[in-house]
Amino acid sequence: QVTLKESGPVLVKPTETLTLxxxxxxxxxSNTRMGVSWIRxxxxxxxxxxxxxxxxxxKSYSTSLKSRLTISxxxxxxxxxxxxxxxxxxxxxxxxxxRILSYCSSxxxxxxxxxxxxxxxxxxxS
Amino acid sequence: DIxxxxxxxxxxxxxxxxxxxxxxxxxxxxxxxxxxxxxxxKAPKLLIYAASSLQSGVPSRFSGSGSGTDFTLTISSLxxxxxxxxxxxxxxxxxxxxxxxxxxxxx
Lengths: 126, 107
Hints:
The complex is a heterodimer of chains A (126) and B (107). Chain A is an all-beta fold and 126 residues long.
């Protein structure tokens, strides 16, 4: 059974650094067909992709947030960690981690988010 | 970045209706387009991947089509549990991007 669970602070102050951990089970972070993304959703607003890390440790970041984000993984602990620096009230959101699954047909390889964590609401306020 | 535009932003429909939601990408995304359903207070759920492939366990009343820049999600006969917000997402080029969502409400 595949599960992902986000953990971290529920409240951070402006200018502080947020550290979120995604603990996965039911699959390995070393599986070449899989990776993990972080996605957030401000209250009442749309989903926003933040970052991903793949099995080969390849990382990618949101263009607008790249300078503030760092993603890493500890395969032995089945954990993916996202840090976001210089937090602002506009960063108040539910933060999700999601499994990336890669599917290859005869001609192309696709990927999508097939399992999601329940999300964790992070509020930025002094 | 590839920009995503969904239409309509909201939609009122009745049980049994056929509904179509459109997603347009700012540049070709080939068929690297996925659809998700989100209910209030819940994480999104994958419905369709690679533009037209139905995720395992998703009812066959959901279907996807399109390629290039224009994609559609169709629900052939709305059921009460389908009232939710739907998002498209392109995975053709990083960074990944999502549409702004389409809220499907009961008429």
